[in-house]
Write a structure and sequence with these properties.
alpha/beta, Rossmann fold, two-stranded parallel sheet, 10 helices, 8 strands, 37% helix
């Protein structure tokens, strides 16, 4: 059947299907956790449902945190012939942070995300051998592995720390957005500002956290 100007019903339906529709309300995360992604990726058009906009842990007023590892000597490692990276120091800070807040985090689901498979593998191995952390509800996975999932608390280990500002596929803003939108109540991002802030997306993220969240230093957790 033709509709005029040689357009068929199938042509018209195809146009409708291909229209880009933005779902403008999110039902997952605290408004502060959503804020950077909303500004950066959704042109401030994304709204929070009233039931989650202040969704937080009990007695916690810091839903969005960046822990800066700059100056700590946490150099990235690339074992053997691997094309991936790991950062032992970042995991140690995550562990200390969890232990410091263990009563507050009791009963919560925790996710640890890293873009690098070697970091995911390393953290999983460490947790298996850790009596305390192994008793908690912690899942460790890559960004792709966490797509479609959510946890009450999310840690993101960015890993990269080098003298030349090389961050590889951390430049992929879409994957950063996925990682940052997995948390329901608390998001903690760990990274070396001296490395990652050489790139505009991360300089903007850190500046955003400084005004809308809590900027912290890894030096505050170096008790190991």
């Amino acid at each position: 059947m033709k509709l005029g100007f040689d357009r068929t019903i199938l042509d018209t339906l195809s146009d409708k299907i291909n229209e880009c529709i933005l779902l403008d309300t999110q039902y997952r995360m605290h408004g502060s956790i959503m804020s950077f992604s909303n500004l950066r990726f959704y042109k401030s058009k994304l709204l929070s449902d009233s039931g989650v906009v202040y969704r937080s842990l009990r007695n916690d007023t810091l839903p969005l945190v960046f822990i800066d590892t700059a100056g700590c000597g946490f150099d990235e490692l690339s074992p053997g012939d691997s094309r991936s990276y790991l950062n032992e120091g970042e995991y140690n800070i995550i562990r200390e942070h969890i232990l410091l807040h263990i009563e507050k985090f009791a009963g919560c689901t925790i996710g640890i995300i890293s873009p690098y498979k070697d970091q995911v593998r390393y953290i999983r191995q460490q947790i298996v051998d850790d009596i305390v952390l192994n008793s908690l509800d912690i899942e460790v996975n890559s960004i792709d592995g966490f797509q479609g999932q959510e946890k009450e608390i999310i840690y993101i280990s960015l890993v990269r720390c080098n003298d030349i500002g090389d961050i590889g596929f951390l430049k992929d803003e879409r994957r950063l957005n996925v990682a940052m939108t997995r948390a329901q109540k608390k998001l903690i991002i760990l990274g070396d500002s001296a490395t990652i802030a050489q790139h505009e997306i991360y300089a903007s993220l850190i500046a955003h956290v400084e005004t809308q969240g809590h900027y912290d230093s890894a030096w505050n957790y170096m008790n190991y």
